[in-house]
Amino acid sequence: MKQHFCITHGLGRNNESGVGVWRIRSLFAAVFVVVLVAGCARAQSSGAVPGAARVKTGIDVLEEQNFAPLRGKRVGLITNQTGVDSRGRRTIDVLSGAEGVKLVALFSPEHGIAGKLDQEHVDNSKDAATGLPVYSLYGNSRRPADEDLKGLDALVFDIQDAGVRFYTYTATMGYCMEAAAKNHLAFFVLDRPNPLGGERIEGPMLDADKTAFVAYFPMPIVYGMTLGELAGFFNAEAGIGADLHVVRMSGWKRATTYGETGLVWIPPSPNLRTVAETVPYPGIEILQAGGVSVGRGTETPFEMLGAPWIDGDALAAELSKRRIAGVAYRAVKFTPTSDLYKGVECHGVALTVTDAAAFDSVGNGMEVAAALRALYPEKFLVAKMIVLVGNAETIAALEKGASVSEIVASWKPGLAAFRVTRGKYLIYE
Questions:
Q1: pTM, to two decimals
Q2: Segments forming the whole domain that contains residue 365
Q3: Is residue 21 situated within a structural domain?
Q4: pLDDT at residue 298 tops 50
Q5: Closest to 370 (Cα-Cα) out of 337, 339, 334, 406
Q6: Among residues 268, 291, 317, which one ends one of the domains?
Q7: From the CB of residue 264, how many other CB atoms can be counted at a distance below 10 Å?
Q8: What's the average model confidence in pLDDT over 404-412?
């Protein structure tokens, strides 16, 4: 196994005039404040904070290196709409125009090369700007075909992740690393920030017999690593043995929030529209398999949940009694325009994260699941949550009515062991 971590890293009439000037200045000042406030609001909704220290992502660092690691290579790029540099240029176009680099093929993950498709199958296509073929990794196969890799010297991965085990871009990366190892290709990860930060670890460990496209390798639901770090973890712990190179970010530290990076948030998939939505996402998403809408088909996915058979006031009251740290709930009604319960009025709750530092997303999801099971034992299907929870002991405990504190306590030994293993692959302070 080879791993390389690259760093780049008078009064009277004059009084009337003075009043006029003062009024004009006041008007300009007011306009300036309005524009500034609006700009700040836009920046915060996109995840950027005005004046924040700039984080350079892997593609920016690669540009600073004048593409030296890729010079003389025929390259296949795994990317989507999130693969852009600090000037907003697509990594596709940057590499296509890079001197000494021959970009010959593109590969797209779930949701397609533009990240707009929310369907079970995405076909191969062609990139209009470059004319390059786009091989779908969410079509007939989830893996690159050997024939599509012929003539390549390297695969390059540049995609923004969500920091969650069941987000399929992690499995796509793992599968592509396997293909690179099999075909003797170098594998480069152009690293990007984990939107949940590099310290948060939540949820149970995945059972070893439950690996799948939504669960590439045993780890917690929230794993606290960048994709570059995760690639090193996969490469060694899963025995891939790829010729792995991580082009590290510059200016990112483990405690850095996405808003502090200065980077604009580009939704990695149709429903993760804001950085704020990534915070409740891990714990809310696991509930959908049990039979509730998690807000897909609304303006605020993962910030509400419900079903036609739920009493929103009763559920809000039950969740309030549980005193879940860092979050508040209120009853709502909504009608999804797509996905589960499309066109049907749902009753449920909306959540507001009041303290992100105290909020445990997966623990919160467990509390909601326990509340739904207590209130609607015949309607909420706990057993089906296994698909994303990935831990049979946790599901069994929920079905038996164990307290969430007991369930969370049962995760501690596995998480402690994971932290030790994970520590070997961390590449940022």
A1: 0.88
A2: 279-390
A3: no
A4: yes
A5: 406
A6: 268
A7: 13
A8: 98
